[in-house]
Design goal:
binds zinc ion, TIM Barrel, alpha/beta, Urease, subunit C, domain 1, nine-stranded mixed beta sheet, 2 domains, about 500 residues, about 20% strand, eight-stranded parallel beta sheet
C-alpha cells in the first residue's frame, strides 16, 4: 500500500489533528522504564552477540535451498559465531550446545520484502477493506495521529510477530516519518525486537491530501543522510538502510531517488497499483534513466508491457503481496507476467490491517493463483502453456528471492556455509502435518505458524520450544493496546470491535 496516490475523496476531508499530531516534536519515548536499551547514536541492530559457544542442530530434515549444498533427510547444521559453518550428517562438535532437531524441518527463515510494520497496532482494523478504505482510514486518518511512541509500539509488536512466525528479515516500508523522532522510534523498536530488517525510510503521513513534497514539517527524504551516519554506517549489522521511495510525481521521485543513491541505499517502490498503476510512472522513470538493479518494485499489477521490459532489462527485483492484492483491488497479482519476464519474485505481507503476518499464507496464495491461471488456460484448450509453479518455487520466493530483493543474498536466504545463521525449525510431529512424506510439500502445503518451533537470527536463538526467548509479553501487550487506544482517540476513528 502506498500513500503516493491521494484519492480524490481525501482531498476534501478535514485535516486530522494538523499541527498537534504532525508537529509533535516530543522526545523519543523514554525506554528506561520499559525494559529496552537506551536510545543512542550507535549502530542499529547490533544486538546482543550470538552465542559464544557453537550451536549444533542435530538430526533434522534439512532443506538448505542451496542447490550446490543439497537437501538432507537427516543432517546436522553447525553454527559458529553467528554463521553456518557446516551442513552434513554426522557432525561432531564437542564444545557445541546441541539442539535436537529430529522431528523438525530445518530451513532458511522467511524474508518479507515489504511490510508497513508501523501498522502493527492496527492489525485487522480493515478485514474487509478496499484500497480506498485503506487510504481513507489508515493513511488518511490514523497515520497522521501517530506519535513516536505509537510507531515504536507498532514496529515492536509487528517485528516480534514476524519472528514468532519464522519471518526473520522484514523490509520495514516505513512511511510514517512525520518527524525525525518518529524515525528514531521506528529504528529503536527494530533494534529492541532483534529482527533482521531493512529499514526503508519513507514519507510522512500528513493527512489528506498528503502532498508531503509541498510540506515543510518533516525532513523526507533528506534525513536519510543523517540515518546513514547515525545508525547505518556499517553493513555488518542486523539493520540495513533503504529508501521507501515514491513513483510519482516524476520530478519528486527522481530527486528523492537520487538522495538514496547518494548515500548508497537501495530503493523500494509501489508501482502498478490499481488505476494509479496505469499512469506510466515506471515508464517515465525509465525514460529518465532512473531504473537500476538496486530497486524493488512492489505489486506491479497494472504495469504496461513496456514497463515490464524496462524493469527486466535493468535488473530490478519484485515483491508480490498476492493476498492483499486480491483482497483490496490492486489488480491481479502478476506472477505469470513476472515469470514471463524472467523475474522470480519475492513475497510480502504488506499491511496487517487486512492480511495475516505469516508466510505460509503468502506462499500458498501465489502457488494456487499461478496454477489456477494455467489450468484455466488448459481448460480453454490452449497449448504450449507455461510451466506450473511447484512448491519448491514458492519456498525459494519466500527465502532466497527475498534475500536478493533486500540486497542480502550474500548473507541469508539459504543454509550455505559462510552465511548468517538465520534458521527456522518447523515441527513435523503435529497433527496438521504428520506423517511427513515430502518435506517441501509439508512446509508449503500443510504447515502454519504453529509449526515454528525454533528461530535463530545470526546464530542467536530468538524462539525455542515454540516460545519467543527473552520477550516480556506483558510489556509488549501493554504497549500495543495503549498505543492503539491513543491513536484511535487522537484520530477520532471509531473502530468496529466485532
Ligand atoms: Zn505496501
Amino acid at each position: 500500500m502506498s500513500t503516493a496516490f491521494p484519492r480524490p475523496e481525501e482531498m476534501s476531508r478535514r485535516r486530522f489533528l494538523g499541527t498537534a499530531a504532525i508537529g509533535a516534536l516530543a522526545a523519543p519515548m523514554s525506554l528506561a522504564g520499559m525494559g529496552g536499551p537506551a536510545l543512542a547514536a550507535e549502530p542499529a541492530g547490533k544486538g546482543p552477540a550470538a552465542s559464544a559457544r557453537p550451536i549444533l542442530l542435530k538430526r533434522g530434515c534439512v532443506l538448505t535451498l542451496d542447490r550446490a549444498v543439497g537437501d538432507f533427510e537427516s543432517a546436522d547444521v553447525l553454527i559458529e559465531k553467528g554463521k553456518i559453518v557446516a551442513v552434513k550428517p554426522g557432525i561432531t562438535a564437542p564444545t557445541a550446545e546441541v539442539i535436537d532437531a529430529s522431528r523438525t524441518i530445518v530451513m532458511p527463515s522467511f524474508v518479507d520484502t515489504h511490510r508497513h510494520i508501523w501498522e502493527g497496532i492496527l492489525r485487522n482494523v480493515l478485514p474487509d477493506g478496499s484500497l480506498g478504505d485503506y487510504f481513507r482510514v489508515v493513511t488518511g486518518t490514523l497515520g497522521p495521529a501517530y506519535r513516536p511512541d505509537d510507531v515504536y509500539a507498532g514496529n515492536l509488536v509487528s517485528a516480534l510477530g514476524a519472528i514468532d512466525a519464522g519471518v526473520t528479515t522484514v523490509l520495514d516500508w516505513s512511511h510514517i516519518q512525520n518527524t525525525p523522532e518518529h524515525t528514531d522510534s521506528a529504528i529503536q523498536a527494530l533494534r529492541d525486537s532483534g529482527v533482521r530488517a531493512v529499514f526503508a525510510y519513507g514519507s510522512p503521513q500528513l493527512g489528506p491530501p498528503n502532498k508531503w513534497w509541498e510540506d515543510t514539517r518533516h525532513k523526507y527524504p533528506e534525513d536519510i543522510r543523517r540515518l546513514r551516519k547515525q545508525y547505518f554506517s556499517s553493513e555488518d549489522q542486523l539493520l540495513t538502510l533503504a529508501l521507501a521511495g515514491v513513483p510519482f510525481p516524476t520530478d519528486v521521485a527522481l530527486s528523492s531517488w537520487k538522495v538514496a543513491r547518494d548515500v548508497g541505499a537501495r530503493i523500494t517502490v509501489h508501482v502498478g497499483v490499481g488505476q494509479f498503476g496505469k499512469r506510466a510512472d515506471v515508464q517515465k522513470l525509465g525514460e529518465a534513466g532512473a531504473l537500476k538493479s538496486d530497486t524493488t518494485y512492489i505489486h506491479a499489477c497494472t504495469l504496461s508491457d513496456t514497463e515490464w521490459k524496462m524493469i527486466a532489462d535493468t535488473g530490478g527485483t519484485l515483491s508480490l503481496a498476492g493476498y492483499v492484492e486480491m483482497m483490496m483491488g490492486h489488480g491481479l497479482p502478476p506472477i505469470q507476467k513476472a515469470l514471463n519476464a524472467g523475474i522470480r519474485p519475492s513475497l510480502s505481507v504488506d499491511v496487517e490491517t487486512s492480511v495475516p503476518g505469516d508466510f505460509f499464507t503468502q506462499m500458498r496464495t501465489i502457488l494456487s493463483l499461478q496454477r489456477n491461471a494455467i489450468w484455466e488456460r488448459d481448460l480453454a484448450g490452449e497449448k504450449n502453456l507455461p510451466a506450473l509453479l511447484k512448491t519448491r518455487d514458492v519456498l525459494e520466493f519466500a527465502t532466497i528471492e527475498g534475500a536478493r530483493a533486500c540486497g542480502l543474498e550474500g548473507k541469508i536466504g539459504t543454509l550455505t556455509p559462510g552465511k548468517q545463521a538465520d534458521i527456522i525449525m518447523l515441527r513435523t510431529d503435529r497433527l496438521n502435518v504428520l506423517p511427513v512424506n515430502n518435506a517441501t510439500g509439508a512446509v508449503v502445503t500443510s504447515m502454519d505458524a504453529s509449526n515454528v518451533d525454533t528461530v535463530l537470527i545470526g546464530g542467536k536463538v530468538m524462539k525455542r520450544n515454540g516460545r519467543l526467548v527473552g520477550v516480556d509479553m506483558g510489556r509488549v501487550t501493554r504497549l500495543a493496546y495503549e498505543a492503539r487506544d491513543r491513536v484511535m482517540t487522537r484520530s477520532g476513528y471509531q473502530r468496529s470491535p466485532l
